[in-house]
Amino acid sequence: MSRNDLILLIAETIGVIAVVMLLGLSPRVRAKREVKFIYPRREGLFALAGFAVILALAVIYYAKLSHTGLQDDLILAGLSALPFVAFLLVRRQPMRSAGWGRANLSLGLQFGLVLAILALFIYNRIGTILGGLSGAQIGSLLYWLAICLLEESIFRGYMQPRLSAWLGGLPGWILCAAMFAVWRLPLWLSAGGTFVSVLPNLGLALIQGLVLGYIQRKSGSVLAPALYRAVSTWASLLG
């Protein structure tokens, strides 16, 4: 990562935290619906079991690939979502227990759009969008939206609320962010990196996970971190 990229990342992180704090002052945010679990320990153990499954899946998946792209990431995200969908169906739990509650959906959309626009300004992509996007650029954005909706539903939708209910808000938030970072390890290692060489990536992913978790905690919806992350990642990579 270049010095300029690091400066942009720091500016984006500070900006996102500041905006979320300001949005959090709204009475609507204070009145958002919180997910409650009758047996939090059991829910936390299901989250850990699901993570073990998708981590093993990621190790196997990336070990089989000679290279990776957005299509590969989308396939893995879809496969990784399946165990958690199965948990919800078999245990007859509603979608709101995975961050998709109707009561918080409009709030999540508001958070997500505001943060997405912030990311576009930071990466100076407003002019690019107004000037017209190519088919490839639009396709890339759609891929990122699909990937992030799936991955955020897993980590910030299913895992974080359950880990927080079991271990406490702060420990659950931090543990979920750490699990999100560890889940990326097979991808980085498959590209030829060593554990030591990917430590900076691990640290950045941990910070990203904490920021995304903070957005979810404030908005009460998985839509907010998913929209923000998709647009931010797309904007940072847009040629």
Automatic annotation (TrEMBL):
Transmembrane regions: 6-25, 45-62, 74-91, 103-123, 129-151, 163-183, 195-215
N-terminal signal peptide: none
Keyword terms of this UniProt record: Hydrolase, Membrane, Protease, Transmembrane, Transmembrane helix
A Pfam family reported for this protein in Swiss-Prot or TrEMBL: Rce1-like
Keyword ATP-binding belongs to the record: no
Keyword NAD listed: no
Gene Ontology biological process: CAAX-box protein maturation; proteolysis
GO MF annotations in UniProt: endopeptidase activity
Segments forming domain CAAX prenyl protease 2/Lysostaphin resistance protein A-like: 140-231
Protein name: CAAX protease self-immunity
